[in-house]
Amino acid sequence: MRRKLGDLHITCSQNFDERNVCVGIFRFAGKGQITVDAEPVFPNPVTGVVTGGSGAFFGAGGQADIVPQADGATLITFHLDS
Fold first, then answer.
1. Which end of the chain is more exposed for a tag (fewer CB within 10 A), N or C?
2. Which residues contact 60 (CB under 8 A, 6 or more apart)?
3. Distance (Å, whole) CA 37 – CA 78
4. Cis amide leading into 43 (omega within 30)
């Protein structure tokens, strides 16, 4: 069963060597937010870098495993250092 934990706001651009550069802000209701940078090669899995956070995630670092699912959803697992 899926349940909504918050919202994701993401911006991607493509640079001159045709690599995608994306920044995602994950907002968790009542908890704070986590910011992730990634260079995805769609639709393949990618590991992004956690570049910061706010609220309960203030000062967060680590990584995020981003794995597209067959049903169109995306599974994101955070591995936080702090």
1. N
2. 34, 50, 52, 53, 80, 81, 82
3. 13
4. yes
**Could you tell me the pLDDT band of residue 15, with boundaries at 50, 70 and 90?**
confident
- The Cα 64–Cα 50 span in angstroms is 7
Query: Cβ neighbours of residue 30 under 8 Å, at least 6 residues apart?
Result: none
Joined together, the tokens standing for residue 16 give 């001159």
Max Cα–Cα distance, the chain, nearest Å: 41
Residue 62's pLDDT is: 98
Q: Does the pLDDT of residue 1 top 70, yes or no? A: no
Q: Which two tokens stand for residue 80?
A: 């936080």
The per-residue DSSP string of 60-75 comes to --EEEEEEE-TTS-EE
d(CA 32, CA 45): 25
Is the pTM higher than 0.70? The answer reads yes
